[in-house]
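User: I'm putting together a teaching handout on how multi-component assemblies are represented. Below are the sequence lines for each component of a complex, exactly as they appear in our records. Could you produce the 3D structure of the whole assembly as structure tokens, so the students can see both representations side by side? Please keep the chain order the same as the input.
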Amino acid sequence: KQEVTQIPAALSVPEGENLVLNCSFTDSAIYNLQWFRQDPGKGLTSLLLIQSSQREQTSGRLNASLDKSSGRSTLYIAASQPGDSATYLCAVRRGAGGTSYGKLTFGQGTILTVHP
Amino acid sequence: KAGVTQTPRYLIKTRGQQVTLSCSPISGHRSVSWYQQTPGQGLQFLFEYFSETQRNKGNFPGRFSGRQFSNSRSEMNVSTLELGDSALYLCASSLGQGAFMNTEAFFGQGTRLTVV
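Assistant: Of course. Below is the structure of the complete assembly, with chains in the same order as your input.
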């Protein structure tokens, strides 16, 4: 059974800092990994999608890396801003042999607070 | 381009009643998945539909059911509601097949169900 763990559970940083959020998963048979953010009471916003054969993906100030063999992913946020305050979730999609299976398994999330 | 639309946004129901939630995916998306989010359990997979067929199912009791229509819109139904069914129910859509990026999941704003 796939288990996804996110560390730390909560993080508070001053504006402008670079930060790293960690995600680990127990079963390396993944098809892809997706990072999301969730604002309080809202749905999930997709940030980055990394295929299992990729090492990293970048979008603006965000960079996500993936080490499938060790079961780890990191989300790097550069020059953090108060608007980045949200819960960040990573999710893995199971798959093998180039075939994906629809289920996403989520971590519990990291609550990020960026204060001015 | 319209996003994933979930209706209603909020619901209050009494124990024992049943409820139907609706999800309209992004135009052209054929895969719809449902998730339950609670503070204690986090995000848990309910089921996935693709082209009107259930492809995957999570570990939820038979009181939880769903269906997908020919226009890809999906509904989920919960019968005999229990207090523990109070949660945010999220729907995600994706293209569903083909290249890996077609599995990127886009979420709606969710339906907040409160059972009293």
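A couple of points students might notice: Chain A touches chain B at residues 31-32, 34, 36, 41-46, 49, 51, 89, 91, 93, 100-109 (CB under 8 Å). The two ends of chain A are 41 Å apart (CA to CA).
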